[in-house]
Amino acid sequence: MIDYMGDDAAVVQAARVSYGRGTKHVSEDRGLINYLLRHSHTTPFEMAEIKFHVKLPIFVARQWIRHRMASVNEYSARYSVLDREFYIPNTANLAAQSSTNRQGRGDVLTDSEASDVLALLRNDATRAYDDYLVMLNEDEHGNTIDAARVGLARELARMNLSLNFYTQWYWKVDLHNLMNFLRLRADPHAQYEIRAYAEVMLDVLRHWAPLTFDAFKEHRLGAIQLSASAVKVVRALIAGEQPSFETSGLSKREWAELVDQLGIKD
Known about the structure:
The protein is built from 11 helices and 6 strands. It has helices at residues 8-16, 26-38, 58-64, 111-136, 154-157, 175-185, 192-208, 210-221, 228-238, 245-248, 252-262, and strands at 3-5, 49-57, 71-74, 95-97, 105-108, 166-174. It has 3 domains: 3-71 and 173-221, 2-Layer Sandwich (Gyrase A, domain 2); 78-160, no CATH class; 228-262, no CATH class.
């Protein structure tokens, strides 16, 4: 975390502006912030901002940049030589493709399979970086390797590098859009590599805006959103009925998700 502007008090101040006064007790601030999040009144949360300096693998950056409501300034390999630094997963995070989720992981690889994959990743990245320097005709410190040879432009040589090489950027975002990011990326279903960053940022949020953090956990991170058909199922359960997939109006996937979320005995 590099810098920030505002905190819980800025959220409360913005929400209370029409009254021309502020709250006098933390309990009132807490209640107001919970009310705002519960009813999706998001504008007051845009009054607080935070700036991070993030170093991350390129493939994680390509996921991250999908969150467009932020200001980003990235390290440029057009102007500078990238470091010899690339991401190699831990064995526990190497898994086969999921058979039920096209963008998820399945069973963890065996030790032997994982060892083969790690060797491929390390060898490919090492070779790619060595070739990158050859094309640049520069060493890792920017010194010319062969005075008799012209190096390839940096903006072209960089295309040789794989997606596990590290980039870095400054990322500035308001509190509202930070929570949108964390709601998706701190979720247990998010890809591990971006979730690792989100979990650290959650702790930053906890220290920066503790009232908002508590409300976020209650109304976003630990909550679920129900469709109109799912609400009917919940109402039937409350009434003592035994709803089934056939009568729910939900698809098989929606029903399975609801059963999992609510602990319904299918």
